[in-house]
Structure formats: C-alpha cells, structure tokens
C-alpha cells in the first residue's frame, strides 16, 4: 500500500517503466539511458503525474498540515533564491525522500554543478549504502556517476512538477523511479554507514567541492 506519513514526512517510492526495484535496494545502474530511452521514460513519467496528483497519498493533501507546508515553503524559497544565480540547478535542490532511501542534492560554488548524496539505512538484512557524487545539469537533466555498493552507477535525474524522476538501467532494462516532495537541506547529512573513514571521506569531498546549504551570494 502506498502511504505518506504527515508527521514523519516519510515518502513512498513509485517504480515506473520497465525496471522494478525493491524500495530498500539501490543497485548499480549499468549505464546512462540512451536518448531514445530517456524520451520514452519522460513520456511515461509525465503520463503518471495526474495519477500522482489525484492520489490521496501522493497528492497535495499533506500541505494542509501546517508543519509540512512550512517545510515545503522553505524549499521553494531556497529554490527561488538559487534560480536567480544558477537557474539550471535550482529545480533539483532539496532532500528527496522515498521511504528508506533518499537523495540530497546541494548547490555548489561552481555554476551548473551540484553535490549529490545518496543515503540508504540498513533495512531488512540489506546493508547500508551511501555515496557522494558530483552532478552536472544540462538541458533540464542532472547526470551523476557515483559508487553504489555494487559498483559504479550512472543515473539521470529529471524534475517534473513536484516530482523527481531518477532514471537507471539495470540488466539492460531502463526504468525511472519517482521521488515525491522535498524537505529543506540541512548541513552535511551524516550517511548511514558504520565506516568512519568513509564518512570522513564523504565530508571531505563535500567541503572540497564547495557544497553548501546557504543562500547564494549575488555579485
């Protein structure tokens, strides 16, 4: 059953396309989708947005709760501020949740580049998995190449309305996962990993890349 908790802001993950992944798994995406695959997945994603909006679980009813509306308004203000200096990256910024896994997408001091942290706590016997990657935005698409626990993983992100679509190719089958709603970015999110060296390395990468949760400086 798809559900969203107003109080915990837990977001359900919808799997679209031909790729079917467990909610608590994040496996390697073998390659970027081809241009033709991307266009097909975008069509599928857009087609399902009215269904998302009509769903009591995935629609906008959660905004009736004052605290959730406050969080959403903070995200919109952050996006609006960054759109003045780096409009390409602004639509992707925020923490996009889907039950156990989430993507946090941060602006950086380099125009057109974002910092992406994937975080998945241990669940159901599946080990925790977190990684840091840099992403670039072009033509409304965010591309990353990060390290999943099964190897290097290539993914493409798109934004449609209030939904983040994450494209991947697994077993040569392209698919797209929908992450809905966003929460404001906090300072570097401590990943769900027990290796202190890896956690320290991610923090170092975060700082060296100029990742930030601050509003932009307008020159």
User: What kind of sheet is the major sheet?
Assistant: 10 strands, antiparallel
Uncertain regions spanning at least 5 consecutive residues: 1-25
Query: Which range does the strand content fall in?
Result: 25-35%
Q: What is the radius of gyration computed over CA atoms, rounded to a whole number of angstroms?
A: 16 Å
Question: What is the average per-residue confidence, as pLDDT, rounded to a whole number?
Answer: 77
The side-by-side strand order for the widest beta sheet comes to 1-9-8-7-6-5-4-3-2-10
**Backbone structural class:** alpha+beta
Please count the beta strands (DSSP E, at least 2 residues each). 10
Helix content: 10-25%
User: What overall form do the CA principal axes indicate?
Assistant: globular
Describe the model:
By secondary structure, the protein is α+β, with helices and mostly antiparallel strands. The N terminus is likely disordered.
């Amino acid at each position: 059953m798809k559900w969203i908790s107003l109080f915990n802001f837990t977001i359900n993950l919808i799997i679209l396309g031909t790729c079917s992944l467990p909610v608590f798994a994040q496996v390697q995406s073998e390659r970027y989708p081809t241009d033709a695959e991307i266009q097909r997945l975008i069509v599928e994603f857009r087609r399902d947005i009215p269904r998302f909006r009509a769903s009591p679980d995935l629609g906008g009813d959660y905004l009736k709760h004052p605290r959730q509306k406050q969080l959403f308004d903070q995200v919109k203000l952050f996006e609006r501020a960054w759109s003045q200096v780096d409009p390409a990256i602004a639509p992707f910024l925020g923490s996009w949740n889907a039950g156990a896994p989430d993507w946090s997408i941060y602006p950086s001091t380099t125009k057109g580049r974002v910092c992406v942290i994937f975080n998945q706590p241990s669940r159901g016997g599946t080990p925790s998995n977190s990684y840091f990657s840099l992403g670039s935005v072009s033509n409304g698409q965010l591309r990353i190449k990060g390290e999943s626990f099964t190897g290097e993983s290539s993914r493409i992100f798109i934004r449609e309305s209030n939904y983040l679509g994450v494209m991947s190719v697994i077993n040569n089958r392209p698919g797209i996962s929908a992450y809905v709603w966003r929460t404001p970015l906090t300072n570097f999110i401590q990943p769900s990993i027990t290796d202190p060296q890896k956690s320290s390395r991610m923090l170092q990468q975060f700082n060296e890349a100029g990742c930030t949760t601050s509003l932009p400086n307008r020159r």
